[in-house]
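Re: that chain you flagged

S.,

Sorry for the slow reply, it's been a week of failed gels. I finally had a moment to sit down with the sequence you sent. For the record, here it is as I used it:
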Amino acid sequence: MKERNIGDKLLYRCYQRLIETGERQGWWKDKGPMLVAVSGGGDSVALLWLLKKFWDGQIVAAHLEHGIRGDDSKGDARFVAELCSQWDVPLVMESVSVPELQRPGEGLEAAARRIRYDFLKKAMEGASARWVALGHTKDDLVETVLFNLFRGSGIYGLAGIPERRGELVRPLIEMRRDELRELLKEHSIPWREDSTNFDVRYSRNLIRNELVPWLEEKLNPNACEHVAALAAEALTWRKVHDDRCDTILETVRAKLPLSFVAWRRAAVLALANEDVTLSSLVRREGMHLGLKALNRGRTTELASLIEKGGRWRFQWEKDIEVCGSSSHIAWVRRDVLRSGPAPISVSVAEALSIRTLQWGPWRFIFEEAPLEAAPYVGTHQARICCRSKDETVVVTPVCRFRDVERFRTFVPWWLEAWWPILSISSTITYWMPLYGGRHEPQNRPGPRMSICVTCAVEGERQSVRGNDQVVL
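Prediction finished late last night. Pasting the structure tokens below so you have them in one place:
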């Protein structure tokens, strides 16, 4: 047990809040290791110092030199390295250039956040850490609530920053930024100041440096405490509401290829209600997929399209679209809306020889079957009779099949160029994987044979950002 040498009221207050927060978040009695994200700023330095001083578990510091502020970024990295060396804290460090790693259409702040969390995940695995501690304070919570309020995020946005999300924890969420800096000064602990934090051209900085001080000075000295309390109430509401949304989403989800996730439109319209609205379900699905949250106006617009029905598309992010028809709603990559694969044809002999035929995301596996095996067409497999190995196997997209109108009842418009129909040249048999088809054995005299065709389709990950669950 570490010695608790607490000689002043401020330090004791921080110590007590650290214990209360750690017990509530579930890590206080754990031994770690805990990865501590340290930028070099006052909040993260205070976090590292408090954990080193009072927590019994093992800590490992992590710093990402992001290359955004040139020499200042390198100075931050040197400072963190020296501090960790003085305090005998293991350090994981990496240098990158965020501007060079930005994705098309991605803002610099969003890119930095994405790359930072990717780094922390990798560092966590490398250190075999059980927790990742972030230096967000009550001030960050308040600023996030106000930022969300003014960008139209609705009640969801009022919940602000969660104090824990899986292995990510925020031990300083009950502490104020000013008191942490006062603590560092009292104990002669240095930190780095990011000059860009004072640039009020950025909305968050404007809230931090001008709006919040004005609220506390002119309106109510306890304004931040009240905003934080509102965030706690909104979070409690959101947890209950999210559970209700998830129950409905589990019911309405459908299996469609090339989709991150898909809904059965009739089911979602039947289950949405005044409490769990279409807008709520849209917002919740976006969270599951790891997409950037839409503001209230765009969320309402998407919900209206779903309710209206018909053929439509909605751009959520630069390369992510939501597509709708009278039967389905699906989140897809924009690539899906371009031309699909061209038709292909091979002889039965060639198909049996190569065994596997790839057509876009679809994979067909061919085997010769006993002639006496009953022919049928199923969802993932078909047994088809043909005259000989000289017959031709044709794979055609639905949009180019001769009876296309017949299949539009089953296939959403955005998948018509990507959904295959397999046919044999001398028969009137056709097979559409996942739906079935039509098989009429030949009655003409002459040699006959039977082939078995199995089909699988590559699915999309459930999360746009890399979750491993696959939805077909």
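What I noticed first: Residues 56 and 286 are 39 Å apart (CA to CA).

Talk soon,
D.
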